[in-house]
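Per reviewer request, we include the raw input and output of the structure prediction for the construct analysed in the revised manuscript.
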Amino acid sequence: MNIRAYLRASTKEQDATRAKESLAKFAAGYGYQAPHYYIENESGAKANRPQLMRLLEESIEGDVILVESIDRLSRLTSEDWEQLSGLIRSKHLRIVAQDLPTSWQALSARPEDEFTARMLDAINGMMVEMMAAIARKDYEQRRARQSMGIEKAKSEGKYAGRKADSKLHKRVNEMLSLGKSVRQTAELVGCAPSTVQRIKALG
């Protein structure tokens, strides 16, 4: 059984590797060493995330998807979550969240009693579904509060929009001036190709 640790942060400014050491220690506590790490800065509300898709592609039956919490794996709509969880089930993968004790039994020897094993699986499945729904609800509430705050600031003439990252703009322009392609520049400065295209268009 392989342990595949998935670490995610929403923006480039956040440290997606923050929980790496904690997850490694957690896995080691159950006798598993050196998880396979899949790290990315993408919104949990986005279904098609490159590293998550790579994790699923490389996984084999019986592997464990290890996350700090379910919201690192999903802030998806119910429809998108159903597709993702369906794919996970079809590959017979198990989800373990560090903050969800009911999921930890996936790292331990399964009970010899089939009834007990099935009951534990059912309870954990229910808890994972509930936590995924809570993660989505939290995402929607935060977005709504953010939108309300922006509208209030606009009405008071205080909203100036997101400030441009002058350092990022400078680095991008430097790479482009050296003849680097958009994709090469994105990789070198650590941002999305679309961001490079936007900065390039500004001149």
